[in-house]
């Protein structure tokens, strides 16, 4: 079965996208029936919807906190947030994940991705205190991120392309959740 999983996943990605050549139509139909009988198509579709729903919920929750004041060491909307407290609270509330407390620890506990691979909900890190990963925010898309910036400010959305943030960009990370790995979890262990 494990040798067929890549074929099944590729077939799912292309289901309905184009017609199979006439010579392959019988094998394509057989593969489609097999996938349908095993429930693979619906599992993959459900996993995609779950990931999209979690991301939407994460961003909606984060945007709902715009205006909450910055507070060093802060971890709640009632008293204020610092950058890592904000990220930690959002992931705890929406995904049920408890990330480490400090931004450098959050960077170490998440998967490194390339800047061009950023998706909404990913973490973006900056060097703001002459040390790597000293500031963190949540990527919202279109080159923007939401964060708790500094004393005297409040949670807000800013452009990563502004001169200040662009020169301090330190890396991007992805928080691996059960939902984001749902398709991988269906793969048989070899």
Describe the structure.
- The chain has seven helices and eight strands; from the N terminus they run αααββααβββββαβα.
- It has helices at 5-14, 25-38, 40-63, 83-95, 103-108, 163-168, 182-185, and strands at residues 75-76, 80-81, 111-113, 123-126, 135-141, 144-147, 156-159, 169-174.
- The strands form two sheets. The protein has a six-stranded antiparallel β-sheet with strand order 3-8-4-5-6-7.
- Helix 3 crosses helix 4 (83-95).
- Residues 1-24, 40-49 and 180-190 have low confidence and may be disordered.
How is the topology of this model organized?
Layout: H1 5-14, H2 25-38, H3 40-63, E1 75-76, E2 80-81, H4 83-95, H5 103-108, E3 111-113, E4 123-126, E5 135-141, E6 144-147, E7 156-159, H6 163-168, E8 169-174, H7 182-185
Antiparallel strand pairs: 1-2, 3-8, 4-5, 4-8, 5-6, 6-7
Helix pairs in contact: 3-4
Write a brief caption for the model.
This protein has 190 residues and is an alpha+beta fold. It is 41% helix and 17% strand.
**Assembly category:** single chain
- Number of E-state strands: 8
Biggest sheet, open or closed, and with what strands and sense? 6 strands, antiparallel
Q: What order do the SSEs take from the amino end to the carboxyl end, as H and E?
A: HHHEEHHEEEEEHEH
Task: Please estimate the helix content.
Answer: 40-55%
Residue fraction in strands? 15-25%
SS-based class: alpha+beta
- Let me know the average pLDDT: 79
Count the DSSP helices.
7
| Rg of Cα set | 21 Å
Shape: globular
Major sheet: arrangement of strands? 3-8-4-5-6-7
Q: For the terminal residues, how far apart are their CA atoms?
A: 10 Å
Q: What are the low-pLDDT stretches, counting only 5+ consecutive residues below 50?
A: 1-24, 40-49, 180-190
